[in-house]
């Protein structure tokens, strides 16, 4: 019980946005295990004393088909265990090869923060060309709404919400479509979103990016892969980003790679010939205010009338600026009182610029975003993007994951730390319980093999490594440690009675195989509904279920053979308590004999 609690408590302190999920899981399971311990030590003995009788212990059902199957399996286990103990180094070599193969294949597992889930919602981000009006963006969003109207009529889409001019940008919009509950529609969220993406191609004047929200509510989740190029030279970063996007477009798994902020907003740059202005005696210090007054007006003062404030602007009432070339017809006064057009001393240049300049970690940055194909996990996409970007990065720059990719990296890093702390704490708790560090090492020797079994379970089921499957890995470590305790503790008791290492571990394994298998069967049957889950949120339950069912099923079988082999090899370093008691008694007798004073 203390070992299981020692597994679950450390993960409760996992930081970050996913830490809340692990915190709930850790504390709930720790309290559940403690309460089950109280029930096992109090209620179960009382019920056994009332319900178990001599007749129930020797009923005729013991000769039924179930008993015969159990007896046959027990006999097969005895023979195979005896063969494994005869060749322990071969078993150890097979276990090492098995674990090594699993950890080699670990890199092929898809890594993502959460599996793609049916959340009954589809989000669309709309991006129109820079410089368009709000009315233009609104009209394009109305076209999209008309295209999806048949889905609303069929009941697949319950409601839609749209917002044009998001964050003060006239060329961007956002749409939220709430779907019918999963049991009231025949198609999944992903199928509906695929059709919406196909329909929106009929609106070529805007770019549309579908977004799928996840269950953890992580900011930026569902937008695919997002990362930034961070450095000191913004222009070099922009040039490198264009090259990286061109390379990403060659990989069909990256869908619509793009700059997060398009540098296409038109801007007029005014270049002033200061020497010519000085020759003409034109004061250019007020030129900016003059242009502002001609274009949009200058805020000059606030007037208060009846306790209300009214802003007063200085604007030009003649010759409005309707075209960039009109700026050249603004007249400026020279030193001799003449008026000359602004084109005499200034040149207008139109260029494309980003609407805003982004920074990450107080450095200039250029962000890149890309949707991903359904079989391209986020972790694999980030690794591939880094491989593409590394040779194209300018000197002194680096790649910084953003949004969901950043959270994935933080979670994986924190998970390694938490796993390390959990293993150390388990080792210390076991060493304190057994009063032997070697016994704790024997039990922990099966943990790598158990994790290897979980890796094969993920590979065979096609499940990704995500926040939910990581929960299953933690649970797997705890249950495996419990199975090891059942065998090692009983073997130590048999050695205290005078049996040798081989004899003790062989008898302990044969006697304890039933409770170990009962633990495995109960856990697997409890996890089976998770594997067979369907409907809303089923993806998360399936990810957790496969680690429990597949990983624990394989790990238990391996534990029944690896734990006895580890005990056979290391058990000789564990001193039985009877030997300790005999040594203590002998030392006390020697001390008493030494302290006896000679008779006079």
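Sequence proposed for the structure above (600 residues):
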């Amino acid at each position: 019980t203390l070992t299981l609690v020692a597994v679950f408590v450390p993960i409760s302190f996992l930081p970050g946005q996913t830490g809340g999920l692990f915190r709930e899981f850790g504390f709930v399971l720790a309290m559940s295990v403690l309460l089950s311990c109280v029930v096992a030590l109090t209620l179960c003995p009382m019920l056994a004393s009332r319900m178990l009788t001599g007749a129930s212990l020797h009923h005729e059902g013991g000769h039924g088909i179930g008993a015969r199957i159990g007896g046959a399996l027990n006999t097969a286990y005895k023979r195979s265990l005896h063969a494994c103990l005869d060749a322990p180094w071969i078993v150890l070599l097979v276990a090492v090869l098995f674990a090594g193969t699993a950890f080699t294949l670990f890199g092929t597992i898809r890594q993502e923060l959460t599996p793609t889930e049916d959340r009954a919602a589809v989000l669309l981000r709309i991006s129109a060309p820079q410089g368009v009006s709000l009315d233009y963006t609104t009209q394009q969003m109305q076209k999209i709404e008309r295209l999806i109207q048949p889905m609303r009529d069929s009941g697949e889409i319950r409601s839609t919400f749209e917002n044009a001019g998001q964050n003060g940008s006239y060329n961007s919009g956002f749409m939220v479509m709430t779907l019918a509950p999963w049991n009231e529609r025949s198609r999944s969220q992903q199928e509906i979103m695929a059709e919406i993406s196909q329909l929106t191609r009929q609106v070529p004047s805007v770019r549309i990016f579908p977004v799928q929200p996840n269950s953890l509510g992580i900011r930026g989740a569902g937008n695919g892969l997002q990362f930034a190029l961070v450095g000191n030279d913004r222009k070099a970063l922009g040039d490198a980003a264009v090259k990286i996007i061109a390379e990403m477009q060659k990989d069909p798994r990256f869908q619509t790679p793009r700059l997060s902020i398009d540098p296409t907003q038109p801007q007029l740059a005014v270049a002033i010939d200061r020497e010519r202005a000085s020759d003409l005696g034109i004061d250019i210090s007020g030129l900016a205010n003059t242009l502002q007054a001609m274009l949009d007006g200058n805020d000059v003062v606030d007037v208060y009338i009846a306790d209300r404030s009214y802003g007063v602007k200085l604007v030009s009432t003649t010759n409005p600026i309707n075209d960039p070339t009109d700026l050249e017809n603004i007249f400026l006064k020279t030193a001799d009182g003449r008026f000359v057009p602004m084109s005499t001393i200034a040149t207008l240049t139109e260029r494309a610029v980003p609407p805003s300049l982004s920074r990450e970690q107080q450095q200039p940055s250029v962000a890149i975003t890309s949707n991903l194909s359904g079989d391209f996990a986020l972790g694999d996409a980030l690794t591939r993007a880094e491989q593409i970007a590394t040779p194209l990065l300018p000197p002194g720059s680096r790649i910084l994951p953003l949004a969901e990719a950043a959270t994935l990296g933080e979670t994986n890093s924190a998970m390694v730390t938490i796993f390390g702390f959990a293993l150390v704490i388990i080792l210390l708790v076991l060493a304190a319980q057994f009063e032997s560090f070697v016994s704790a090492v024997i039990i922990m020797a099966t943990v790598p093999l158990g994790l290897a079994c979980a890796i094969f379970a993920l590979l065979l089921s096609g499940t990704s490594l995500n926040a939910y499957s990581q929960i299953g890995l933690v649970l797997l470590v705890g249950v495996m440690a419990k199975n090891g305790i059942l065998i090692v503790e009983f073997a130590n008791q048999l050695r205290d009675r005078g049996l040798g290492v081989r004899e003790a571990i062989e008898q302990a394994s044969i006697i304890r195989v039933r409770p170990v298998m009962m633990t495995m069967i109960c856990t697997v049957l409890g996890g089976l509904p998770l594997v067979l889950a369907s409907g809303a949120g089923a993806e998360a339950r399936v990810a957790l279920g496969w680690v429990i069912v597949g990983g624990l099923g394989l790990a238990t079988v391996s534990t029944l053979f690896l734990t006895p082999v580890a005990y056979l090899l290391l058990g000789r370093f564990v001193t039985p308590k009877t030997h300790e008691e005999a040594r203590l008694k002998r030392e006390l007798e020697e001390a008493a004999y030494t302290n006896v004073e000679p008779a006079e």
